[in-house]
Amino acid sequence: MNHLKQSYLKLIPALSENINAIFCNRLEQNQFIDLHQFKFTEQTSDFNIIEQILTKAQRIPLCNYTTTLNAKSIKLSSQLKQLVSKEKFIFNERGTKDLYLGWPFVQGKFNDGTVFKCPLLFFSINLEVIKGKWTCNIKAEVNITMNKSFLLAYSYCNDQEIPEPLLNETFTHFDINTDGFLSSLGKLLKDNELDYNIEKVTKFNTLQPFKPITKNELLKTARSNVLTLSSEAIIGIFPQSRPLVVHDYLSLLQNESGWDVKDYFNRKIKLNPNDETGGKISDRAKEENTFTPFEIDAYQEKALNFIKKGNSICIEGPPGSGKSQLIANLICDYIARGKKVLVVSQKKVALDIVYKRLASKEVNDFVGIVHDFKNDRKDIFDKLKYQIDRIDENKRKNKEVEISGIEKKNQLANEKIDKIIEELDDLKFALFDDSECGKSIKELYLKGNEGNPQLLLTSSFGQFKYADISKFEVSLKRYLSYHLKYESATYFWIWGASFALLDRNDLIEMNHIISESGIKFSELQKKCSHLLGTAPKYEELIFFLNKRNLLLKFIANIDHATTYQYFRKILTTIPDQNDHWLAQIERNILGCFDGQGIETTLKTEELGRFQKALQQALQRKRNLFKWINWRLFSKEKMWINRVLISNKLKKSRTDIKELSIKIDNRLNYEHNVSKLNEKKWLINYPKLINKITVQNWFFYQRNALNTYGQYEKLSGLGTLIDFTKNDRAIQIEVLNNFIRILDKLPEYLNHWKKYFSSKQLSELLSGIQSEKKIRKELTDEFDNLVDFHSIYDQFNQVEKEIAEQLKDVPGDLESRISDFQYALANYWIEKIEFKYPVLKSISSGQFESNLKILRESIDTKYESSKEITCYKSREKTYNDLTFDKSNRIDYNDLLSQLSRAPSIWPLRKVIAEYQEEVFKLIPCWITSAESASAIFPMTECFDLVIFDEASQCFAESGIPAIYRAKQLVIIGDEHQLAPVDIFKSKESPRHKQPKHDSDSIHNLAKIHLPIFYLNGHYRSKHPDLIQFSNSNFYNNALKIIPEFEAINSTDRPIKHHFVKGLWEKGLNLKEAQKAVAIVNQIIRHPAKKSIGILTFTSKQQALIETLIEEQIGDMDYEYLFIKNTQNSQGDERDIIILSTVFGPDSDNGLNVTYEYPKSKFNNLLNVAITRAKENLHIVSSLGSNQLNALVTNHPEVQVLKAYLQFARNPAIKSGKTNQKTTLTFDPQWYLKIKVKEIIEQINPDLEVLFSAPFADIIIKNNGEACGIILTDDEIYFNALSSKQTHIYEPALLVTRKWPNLAIHSREIWLSKTDLYQKIKRFIYRITSGVV
Q1: Which of 384, 430, 1249, 1322 could bond 1301 through an S-S bridge, CB–CB 3.0 to 4.6 Å?
Q2: 1084 pairs with which residues across the strands?
Q3: Which one, of 1239, 1245, 1242, 1234, lies nearest residue 1268 by Cα?
Q4: Predicted confidence (pLDDT) per residue in 864-878, tens digit
């Protein structure tokens, strides 16, 4: 991989002879000033400035700020002003202060032929105006430094190692006298084996004017590897961190193992790492192991979960997508778990934003922010000393904090979050799982509320899976359509046998039977008429044929004279009791003959008196005197004796008792006989009390009653034969002959019923339907009837049952099919809900209660994460400290070094020597890629390295920081700006990128790492501000929830201002004046808004700065910035003003020149138009004619035409935003379609739209949005997580003040009426102004 190393190394500007730190062959006006030019302005000698610099004097006068007397001073003042402006710009962009005085100069050539002419030493200075004079101040806190670019180029080109002490030399022990200083410098160079040739010493007592020289001239005069020193001095911008990147590369070159970029990236991807507890973790990181004190969205959380697995990833972060929020959460999570984090960005504003976020959670004490590794050294050292001094306070604070309580509260919150999220995940899975029947229950809920519960739901419905049901539904529809056609009560062929297997031969035979049956039946009727005197109808004959056996039994019964006699009596009287009653009476009467039997000698009327006399005799016999008295004087004595004798009994007490029993039996007998005598249909009961006689009577009487029952069952028999006439023999003969006629029918029926049912034969043979009509229907519908019955035969048993049920359901074809679908949907709903009980929770109060608990738990987690992060960070500063008696040993050496003056070490050396202690005190560092190389050891010293705005970081600058990472997160945006060298003062072509790799660290990471996307957009308050970029650059992937008030505002957020300006060498005065006028207008408004002014040229930027200063005065940078667009990435303001500068020139041509690669104008425009939070003002000199010419003459900026048209006319939409809303799923899948129908029923004047990307339904009243409805449709289906659906987006809707209502598909299934009322209440609230 040496070729790759060398390629990237050559891309480092610090090694290129095209940079001024190595080959300063001429001085550009806005970049450098020859110090010799200040001779005789304020100094008696220009060299006096050098002498004062060596003594670290302050306020060294240079020249007047303004003067009208001295043209030279005016020019120098202007140059100084430009330098200060350049330094300020660089500071605002990178946070570095790279203004240096360079002296003395060294020139020559290296062994490989590379030439050099550059300062050898750099003195950090600042320039300021004091009392009308430009003054120069040496920064006492910043050491003098060697020109590291020169030293490293010397090492690389000469293949000679430069000692580390020389690179880090601070010159603190050098003599401040010029001669002594130069002598020490010469010794230093010789000691480090740098061969040099110093010019005559006398020449160093004065400054020489800077001598321009060409490369060829230097190649001719210089000797290889001999340094020639000269007393030239310049003031200019010299970035000091870049050389240290070279130093890193040289270290990497020495370490061949692990350098391969691809392999190195691959080692950063761990798809299934172990978590802290040793177990595998899922796609969603465990809440208990995650400490995120900042609010987060689903896209950020998805990336964070993947990172928590130990993976390195690349993140695409479009404008306003919450990159800094994610970075801040990652920092807190990692340092809370004792990890070390490095955040790298080339943009000062990006680093500052992250730092401010961390400060809002009181974590900033544990964060070191280094924009300028030299100038920020004091602040870092102060923070380290502060942290050491606070160790005891950290202990005290932590003792005061009930960490166990906080951790328990955090644990409980985590458990609740995990539990509820698991339930919500299960709910979502169950809602859309279609594995059970081929459709999700979400769609079934919508189907299950359309129809009526007409069909009986049985387990047999389980055979119907939606993937296979279409064939059955087609057949069912066809079958039911036939049924509806034929279901008329008069339609002959619907009653017959199946036509399924019939063909044309059967049709012929059926027609034959129609004719034959009529003839045969007529013959039978004639015979019946001759026999009976009447012709029975077909149904009557069939009836008696079916009752043939019963008829035979009837004939047998009436063949007995007694039975016949009793039957005729019953027939004429009509019995009021049945055989059961008569049988019971028979049992009662015959039971009287059992045992002692019946007394039969007494008359019926004597029974009562005799029973009384007998009872008296029995009573007297119990008493001797009464018994004697009874025998002597009783009148009944003789009667009783006579009856006893008649019954062959004696006068004993026993016999008298026996007689008493006989009398009781007789009384019971007479009672039952009286019941029989009451019935007029019973005749001839025997007078003789004899058991056999009575039994015979009951036999015939019951037989007659059964015969009557048979007669009743033979309905209509009485109309054929009059049984009231006493003609038993004739009647029996007629009945037997009738049976003979009936016996002919089965032979006919066996043939006819092959095709015809009894009902059909009845209709045909009874003449109810004409033979002609029947024949015509048969001919016309034969094929349809065959199809009708064939469909049915092809149904399985379950399908037949359903078809039969649907035949009985009222309604037309569609309603019956709908009823089937309704029944099927409800069957599967019941089954799926049994499988997934969680589905029922969505309609319960517990669901909303859980969401409330989830919201509270997440809020608790935010707060406890902050407290735990602070606690763990404080704890780390004092954990595992060692003591000598009561004195702490740790940190003493570090504190001593931090407090040394003037011999304070460079930051890099302090961190290298005390790395463990430094990282305990400050576990998180925020810096640029170059500063990371300048201050950190070239080892994997960080657990996590995060690149922010990585698309603006050159790959060669960022690679060394990557090699300091155990884990990487690269965040950038391919649609924003590529890396820009803000220090470059002249055209210097970069070397070609290594094959398969890219210019930015972001593009390099995209090749090797998994890519995640942050698609939430939170910057723009109105969708118009991001719409164009979203459509043209981000494929409409960005999700924005605009502010409710902004969406209804009549004041459009994008304002186009056309001016008749001219392009003049990168300037457009009219546009600049208009931009300043807009600023003037904004600042007069009482609401203070932050403002950013952007242009496409640096000259226009400078012009606007001048006009602002002249017309408004100095403005706070935090309030206003003025930038070339290529330096604005990462910035945002309430209001952005964009001056395009482009326009017609003095020759009536169209000039579209900008300081950025032509192929990347889309990126430039994207950045420019996405900086605004509230309003964007476009100031342009391009009229309609110029816009048309753009595409023809400048195709690279044709997107500008589209945007200007969009800005001018809000009705013009761009790209995909003009497309109609399309439905991904079948319309029956969408709850919002049904909700729209309900809304239109409630208030037809409301406008219901599906086009809002952040809601399923947006409701408009009188043209203004008034509320939104969220459903479980596509937005819910596509949501990354349950938190996004139920927590993050609802919370954002509340923040953005959107009235909203959430509806679930199960609600419409449970009760459409209740849902109607719910929506009605919401509509009333949002349209009546009730909140």
Answers
A1: 1322
A2: none
A3: 1239
A4: 999 999 999 999 999
Among 424, 221, 228, residue whose Cα is nearest residue 1282: 424
CB-count exposure of residue 611 (10 Å: 0-12, 13-18, 19+): middle
The whole-angstrom separation of Cα 1292 and Cα 47 is 64
Q: Which long-range contacts (CB under 8 A, 24 or more apart) does 1262-1265 make?
A: 1264/1048, 1265/1044, 1265/1047, 1265/1048
pLDDT of residue 278 exceeding 70 = no
Please choose, from the candidates 578, 284, 499, 510, the residue with its C-alpha nearest in 3D space to the C-alpha of residue 1283: 284
Where b means 16+ CB within 10 Å and e means fewer, 237-261 reads bbbbbbbbbbbbbbebeeeeeebeb
Within 8 A by CB and 6+ apart from 992, the residues are: 7
User: Predicted confidence band at 1 (pLDDT cuts at 50, 70, 90)?
Assistant: very low
DSSP state of 104: S
The structure tokens 């109309």 sit at 719
Q: Which two tokens stand for residue 1153?
A: 């020149």
Strand partners, 64: 133
Q: Where do the DSSP E strands lie in 143-189?
A: 145-146
Residue with structure tokens 């929830």? 1041
Q: Give 826's Cβ-side CA count (13 Å radius).
A: 20
Lookup: tokens for 609: 């008196």
Residue 1259 pairs in a beta bridge with 1248, 1267
Beta carbons of 617 and 640 less than 8 angstroms apart = yes
Q: Which position has the token pair 């932590």? A: 398
Cα 752 from Cα 746, distance rounded (Å): 10
| CB distance 1122 to 1104 below 8 Å | yes
Structure tokens at 908: 């890099």
Nearest to 239 by CA among 424, 511, 22: 22
Instruction: 708-714: list long-range contacts, CB under 8 Å, 24+ apart.
Output: 708/567, 708/570, 708/571, 708/575, 709/579, 710/550, 710/553, 710/554, 710/557, 711/554, 711/567, 711/571, 713/547, 713/550, 714/544, 714/547, 714/550, 714/551, 714/554
CA dihedral 333, 335, 338, 344 (to 10 degrees): 110
- Distance between CA atoms of 1040 and 1253, rounded to whole angstroms? 8
Q: Counting beta carbons within 10 angstroms of the beta carbon of residue 533, is it exposed (0 to 12), middle (13 to 18) or buried (19 or more)?
A: exposed
Backbone φ, ψ for residue 1315 (5° rounding):
-65, -40
* Exposed / middle / buried, residue 813 (Cβ in 10 Å: 0-12, 13-18, 19+): middle
Average pLDDT over residues 843-854: 91
Please write the tens of the pLDDT for every residue from 68-108. 567 777 888 888 988 888 888 888 888 888 899 999 999 99
Q: Are 721 and 551 in contact (CB under 8 A)?
A: no
Question: Each residue of 498-525: b (16+ CB within 10 Å) or e?
Answer: ebeebeeeebeebbebbeebeebbeebb
Asked, as a colleague might, if the bond just before 104 is cis with ω within 30 of 0, I would say yes
User: For residue 118, which phi and psi values (nearest 5 degrees)?
Assistant: -160, 165
